[in-house]
Write a structure and sequence with these properties.
Layout lengths: L1 E7 L2 E6 L13 E7 L3 H11 L6 H6 L6 E4 L2 E12 L10 E12 L2 E6 L4 H12 L7 H36 L5 H33 L5 H67 L14 H23 L1
Parallel strand pairs: 3-7
Antiparallel strand pairs: 1-2, 1-3, 4-5, 5-6, 6-7
């Protein structure tokens, strides 16, 4: 699907392109062209009208981190991550899965071209803003800046939610809740989520840093990008704090598990020490040979039992003295 956002008589209009015989010139003052799950025909139309090469999804995913920003005369190509939340099937963990989805941005002739394969609420919100008040959006560069700003705010919300969940988990250590396998799995899940968010933020930091060096970006937008890069840096520091906290919690919970295991081992050791002499006495009296005391007497059973009890009492006194 190709969605074209353009201005007509100072009014922003959004059209979904269905007739591919139309030229881009038929949409005056085009601000933004959004490709969503584009077909070959749609990609061909865009390539012919804007004289650009549109990368496929496979090509976007294969782009190395060092090549995710490309700039030449009159054109800027950016591939950056957007966080996508997916429903978590594990009922014990309230937080959704977060994955990084690569989105392509191309800026040419003051037109923003976006290429994506996932539904993004950020894009819908920007279109609503454009429909309400289009004055702040002089061209596609300003739309791109607003998309980045809104996305950083949403990333901050996701990170804040993760931090709250981690804080909730830390209360288990204080409350003395029984440590289960589920808690350890939850910590691993939070670590993976935090790592994904951090990777996303570092990617945005790299893009913003490149944009600040670009001669094609207006000064007023560079000021906005400077503010954004500071926000991103503070969020990256927050992910480091989360990593430290998760490492501490993991070590604490594993330490509690070790203590619990040590208690069990201690109890089993005491039991084995108590019963070792008794077992020895029982084994001796169970031997089938002549000369066992009271072996042929009716008192043999009681004598053997008394010896076992005495052996256990002596072993118990020995353990008590060891403490």
């Amino acid at each position: 699907m190709i969605k074209i956002v353009f201005k007509e008589n100072e009014t922003v209009k959004v059209k979904i392109l269905k007739d591919f015989s139309k030229k881009l010139e038929s949409f005056p003052n085009t601000l933004w062209i959004d490709l969503f799950k584009a077909s070959r025909e749609e990609i061909r139309w865009l390539s012919e009208n804007l004289k650009i090469k549109v990368p496929s999804r496979a090509e976007v995913e294969e782009i190395e981190s060092s090549s995710r920003y490309w700039e030449e005369e009159g054109i800027i190509k950016i591939n950056t991550y957007f966080l996508i939340e997916e429903k978590n099937k594990n009922r014990e963990i309230e937080l959704n899965f977060v994955i990084n989805e690569s989105i392509t941005f191309i800026l040419k002739d003051n037109i923003l071209i976006t290429i994506r394969y996932k539904e993004l609420s950020t894009f819908n919100e920007i279109i609503k803003r454009l429909m309400i008040n289009s004055k702040p959006y002089k061209n596609g560069l300003y739309i791109f800046a607003d998309i980045l700003s809104l996305r950083i705010d949403k990333d901050a919300d996701i990170l804040e939610k993760l931090t709250r969940e981690i804080s909730q988990l830390s209360k288990y250590a204080i409350a003395g809740v029984d440590i289960t396998e589920q808690i350890i799995e939850t910590i691993s899940f939070y670590e993976e989520s935090n790592m994904t968010i951090r990777e996303n933020l570092i990617d945005k930091q790299r893009v913003l840093s490149s944009l600040l060096k670009s001669y094609q970006i207006p000064l007023e937008l560079k000021e906005e990008f400077r503010i954004m890069i500071k926000d991103v840096a503070s969020l990256i520091n927050y992910t480091s704090f989360n990593f430290d906290k998760l490492t501490y919690l993991q070590n604490t919970f594993l330490g509690l598990i070790n203590l619990k295991q040590n208690r069990i081992i201690k109890v089993l050791t005491i039991i084995s020490v108590l019963f070792a002499p008794a077992t020895l006495v029982a084994s001796i009296f169970g031997m089938n040979f002549q000369g066992i005391p009271f072996g042929n007497s009716n008192l043999g059973f009681w004598f053997g039992t008394a010896m076992i009890v005495i052996a256990m009492i002596l072993a118990g006194l020995y353990l008590k003295n060891l403490k």
